Amino acid sequence: MRKIFVCMAILACTLMFATASMATNGDNLIGIGPISRAMGGTGIAAPQDAISAVFSNPAAMCFGPYCPSSEINFSGTLFMPKIDAKITTANGVVKADSEDNVYAIPAIGLSVPISETPQNWRFGLAAYGVTGLGVDYRDTPIDQASYPSGAPVASGEYTELQIMKFAPSLSFQLLPNLSLGLAFHIDYETLDLGDGGSTAYSFGFQPGIIYKPIDNLSLGLTYVSPQKATFDNVTDFDQDGRRDDLDLEAPQQVGFGVAYLFTGIELLLEADTKWINWSNADGYDDFDWDDQWVFAIGAQWQPIQGLFLRAGYNYAESPVNEHNGWDGSFGPGGPNSVTNVQGKTLPTYYYETFRTIGFPAVVEHHLTFGVGYQITPTVELNVGYMYGFENDITETGINPDGDPVEIKSTLSEQAIDFGFTWRF
After folding, report:
1. End-to-end alpha-carbon separation of the chain, Å?
2. Dihedrals phi, psi of 266, to nearest 5 degrees
3. pTM score, whole prediction
4. What's the pLDDT score for residue 102?
5. What is the pLDDT of residue 236?
6. What pLDDT, on the 0 to 100 scale, is given for residue 6?
7. How far apart are CA 327 and CA 288, in angstroms?
8. What is the largest CA-CA distance in the chain?
């Protein structure tokens, strides 16, 4: 128990010093930890470390390479998005690059036996940044109040969403080939839309199951509940001089995974699919996000004792629907068209620029690679790399002056992951 309390203190410190991130399946990271991320974000059926077990499927804590001992993982991700926006009218082009940043995303996780027979009950704990999205066009041509007729060129010139998750979990090995698990999610969230940050908490749960019909084959199934947060006084959507609240709900998810280990050549293949219900989540449905199907494959090969080579691929269609033909024009009395967001009305032009410029979660294809080395039987180092291929969202409509306008946002991503594993 002393080990658990020490690790809980470390986890709390990790949450305190976490910074924002950009994300890839919608506004979610494809995976947590350098092993899972190097394998395309897979891990529902056979996660290879404690942190990805808690994140992907808590039932898997009973079957990983960390069993029957205890394991703690320290990891970090350096996330490097490249974002730009362009607004084209008959009068010219306004374009800018979002301020380029390197975002540091820490994570820590552990898994320990808590019963007399270690394979029966295990306790897990993890803290990690799971969601993030944002842009910063302040002091760029996008951030100006002279277009048109004194109105801003766009809304959404500064946005930042980040969610840190704290997840205690339990798993139970019901049979030699069957385990059940349950994680409780405690989320600390911040949202800044240019008027100062607002913080909120949300809560949820994640049950999971692992079944091994034969020794080398593993099947995993998991569910993540919706987790709703309310951000108070986040921004003035309807321009009535008072800041409005915004409900934002992390959507429910269902995931299934399969993994097979080819013994003799020591090759592990994994494949996951996840359904993310953006269209039914508060906030995301207001900005017309569609559901996603995520498909991920990963491989780990151990050519010699202690050396692990990894690769993966992850695909999910962009959830942000494109709108075309909308009327964003203004008349003498104000906007000719408005859009309702949680009971507040936005001029349609600013609703559309907020969606496309402020939250361009459009990357679809990801390639990943990684390597791990076991320094001793109890200590392992892992590194990984992810590239999210460039994609864009482009919309056409009528701007506030009544002229045709094209709005375009482009996003690509790179990330470097590193981690330290200690088994004890």
Report:
1. 14
2. 50, 55
3. 0.92
4. 82
5. 83
6. 53
7. 17
8. 77
CA separation for the pair 416, 103 (Å, rounded): 11
Per-residue pLDDT tens over the stretch 67-108 = 888 999 999 999 999 999 999 988 888 888 988 678 888 899
112: its two tokens? 């320990």
Q: 334: which 2 tokens?
A: 């104000």
Side-chain-side CA neighbours of residue 136 (13 Å): 11
Element of type H or E holding 34: helix 34-38
Rounded to whole angstroms, the Cα distance separating 207 from 222 reads 6
Task: Give the separation between CA 75 and CA 284, rounded to whole angstroms.
Answer: 30
Q: Which two tokens stand for residue 2?
A: 């002393």
Q: Supply 108's token pair.
A: 């820590």
Is 322 exposed, middle or buried (CB count within 10 Å of its CB: 0-12, 13-18, 19+)? middle
Rounded alpha-carbon distances, angstroms, from residue 328 to 53, 85, 146, 151, 339: 47, 18, 17, 12, 10
Residue-wise pLDDT for 271-288, tens only, equals 999 999 999 999 999 999
Domains of the chain listed by start with CATH number? 2-134+160-423 (2.40.160.60)
Cβ neighbors of 418 (< 8 A, separation 6 or more) are 34, 75, 76, 381, 382, 383, 384
Place of tokens 């990690």: 128
User: What is the CA angle 241-242-245, rounded to 5?
Assistant: 145
The answer for 156, left when phi > 0, alpha when psi is -120 to 50, beta otherwise, is left
How many Å apart are CA 106 and CA 79, to the nearest integer? 11
Q: Which residues contact 19 (CB under 8 A, 6 or more apart)?
A: 103, 104, 105, 129, 162
Across the strands, what pairs with 257?
220, 272
**61: nearest Cα among 43, 77, 41:** 43
SS3 content of the chain, % helix, strand, coil (to 5): 10, 55, 35
Which value, to the nearest 10 degrees, does the dihedral of the CA atoms of residues 79, 82, 87, 91 take?
150
289, 278 Cβ separation under 8 angstroms:
yes
Residues 382, 370 contacting (CB under 8 angstroms): yes
pLDDT-based confidence at residue 232 (cuts at 50, 70, 90):
very high
